[in-house]
TrEMBL record:
InterPro entries: FAD-dep_OxRdtase_2_FAD-bd, FAD-oxidoreductase_2, FAD/NAD-bd_sf, Flavocytochrome_c, Succ_DH/fumarate_Rdtase_cat_sf. Binds 1 FAD per monomer. It is an enzyme of class 1 (oxidoreductase). Pfam families: FAD_binding_2. It catalyses: succinate + NAD(+) = fumarate + NADH + H(+). The lineage of its organism: Eukaryota, Fungi, Dikarya, Ascomycota, Saccharomycotina. This is Fumarate reductase.
Length: 500
């Protein structure tokens, strides 16, 4: 182990765990703080997968340039191009690290919205990709911890409260020296000092409860009406603490991704937390219908565009048997039986949770009548026409009305359907960083010893994140931060008197 002080990593999602493992595997001492009682954060819930280009699992002509261009287009001119370069150039390496060094299965590749090629990787088996990745990394950390117990301290129920700082020379800004955290089991407040602090505390898409302190309230009060797909721990702690304690610059904070499809649970319509209906459902061939039973969008365009169309076309305008509030939004996901076979684990899970039903056009019409009373005037034949029109677009390979270019199989006989609504899903904004994930303050200076990795950081995704790029960001920038820390620590070693 190097003789430098430890690095304190805060947050145990994919960003925090990647950083921890990378440092640990180079014998660097790490203290990992996690405010909940388990590791994994939202990363463990990720269901669509992780992007990578070019990989041996892709069987297409994808290139780094195509990935880069899709990312920039999706970001609507706001993305930091240097960060996009780092992300896309290192994506192949990220997939190889996960699959070859950590033996995580990511062999199945799908095409998500806004991507010009299939490049989102997940396993062929039952485990959701986020869970499989977190499991693979924690297993490796456990192995290293067993070999050298003193190398890593993993502190659960430990919530970051404050950064411990020191003023550097005049005009030089603050230097981070450690953290103050609360043991949420005992209420005790403790201080731990370290050479570096890596914030990996995630986004703020569930930060709606304590209004005067809520980042959503401050930056996007218009979004407070939407439910969320994020765990309740996702409250923007890192962004708030870094701004307060070291004047960190927060960038693109008004750019919050509203995912078009969170499942509405028929047994708990009003619940503020929704299971995400993974984009992979549309990727395998699923379509969306309005409450009136019409298609209304290319289901495979970027999330922001699909959401805009849902907001324009899918408002619930009348009291209904289903109990959906007037003024809320609902669209119906429809997946053919053949397409469902491409994602049996997702479909099985959603069905088990009561979020998807299987039935015929007649059953679908019954659901539509429950959410929109005027559908009493719609006949099964009317609804069948909508489905037939889509099936004929599949046959022609051309969707003249909405411009979809990638199709699944025709919707015939019995198929799957479920009700979805837009959900707050991802914060594109966060702490401004450089290419090594070093945090930047409002004067544009690097904040000495402070890193921000994963969703807590901002600037990479600009105005809209592509599906699969958040897990990737966590791995790529977790590695970048680690490398920067290891580089610094080597330099410090060399500068010690007597060091050869
Ligand atoms: C349902 C769902 C599905 C998704 N699917 C995909 C997908 O398929 N592909 C993809 O690329 N992205 C997906 N995303 C997005 C992606 O999962 C997250 O953006 C990404 O995992 C963020 O990783 P992270 O490590 O930065 O944060 P997180 O995984 O959210 O981890 C942050 C951790 O920090 C902890 N923490 C927070 N505050 C403190 C504090 N004060 N002190 C100590 N600990 C703290 C939290 O408890 C949490 O464990 C999905 C998101 C959701 C919600």
């Amino acid at each position: 182990m190097t003789s430098n002080g430890p690095t304190i990593v805060v947050g145990s999602g994919l960003a925090g765990l990647t950083t921890t493992l990378e440092l640990l595997s180079q014998n660097h001492h790490v203290i990992l703080l996690e405010k909940t009682d388990k590791l994994g954060g939202n990363s463990a819930k990720a269901s669509s997968g992780i992007n990578g280009v070019p990989t041996k699992f892709q069987h297409n002509d994808d290139t780094v340039d195509a990935f880069k261009s899709d990312t920039i287009k999706s970001g609507k001119g706001l993305s930091n191009l240097e960060l996009v370069d780092v992300l896309t150039l290192n994506s192949k390496n990220a997939i190889e690290w996960l699959t070859e060094e950590l033996a995580i299965d990511l062999s199945s590749v799908a095409q998500l919205g806004g991507h010009s090629f299939a490049r989102t990787h997940k396993g062929a088996g039952k485990l959701p990709p986020g869970f499989a990745i977190i499991q693979g990394i924690t297993a490796k950390i456990d192995e290293l911890q067993n070999a050298t117990p003193a190398a890593v301290g993993i502190l659960k129920n430990s919530r970051l409260e404050r950064l411990v700082v020191e003023q550097q020379g005049e005009g030089k800004g603050l230097k981070v020296k450690g953290v103050e955290y609360k043991d949420t089991a005992t209420g005790e407040v403790k201080v731990v000092l370290g050479d570096n602090v890596v914030l990996a505390t995630g986004g703020f898409s569930a930060d709606s409860q304590v209004l005067d302190k809520s980042l959503l309230h401050r930056f996007r009060p218009d979004l407070l009406k939407f439910p969320t797909s994020n765990g309740e721990q996702t409250t923007g702690d890192g962004q708030k603490i870094a701004e307060r304690d070291v004047d960190a610059d927060l960038i693109h904070m008004d750019q919050v991704q509203v995912h078009p499809t969170g499942f509405i649970n028929p047994k708990d319509v009003a619940c503020n937390w929704k299971f995400l209906c993974g984009e992979v459902m549309r990727g395998i061939g699923g379509i969306l219908l309005s409450p009136q039973g019409n298609r209304f969008v290319n289901e495979l365009t970027t999330r922001d565009v699909v959401t805009d169309h849902v907001l324009q076309v899918c408002e619930i305008t009348a009291e209904n048997e289903f109990g959906l509030p007037v003024g809320s939004f609902a669209s119906v996901l429809v997946v053919s039986d053949e397409d469902a076979a491409k994602a049996p684990n997702h479909i099985g899970f959603y069905k088990f949770q009561g979020l998807l039903d299987k039935g015929t056009t007649k059953d679908l019409l019954q659901l539509l009548r429950k959410i929109h009373p005027s559908n009493a005037n719609v006949s099964v034949q009317d609804l069948q026409l909508v489905i037939d029109e889509y099936n004929s677009a599949i046959a022609k390979g051309k969707d003249a009305k909405y411009g979809r270019t990638v199709f699944g199989q025709p919707i015939t006989g019995e198929f799957y359907f479920g009700l979805t609504t837009p959900v707050l899903h991802f914060a594109m904004g966060g702490i401004k960083i450089d290419e090594s994930a070093r945090a930047i303050n409002k004067k544009g200076q690097v904040i000495e010893n402070l890193y921000a990795v994963g969703e807590v950081s901002g600037g990479l995704h600009g105005g809209n994140r592509l599906g699969g790029s958040s897990l990737l960001e966590s791995v790529v920038f977790g590695k970048k931060a680690s490398r920067s820390i290891l580089g610094k620590s080597q330099t410090q070693q060399q500068q010690k008197p007597g060091h050869i």
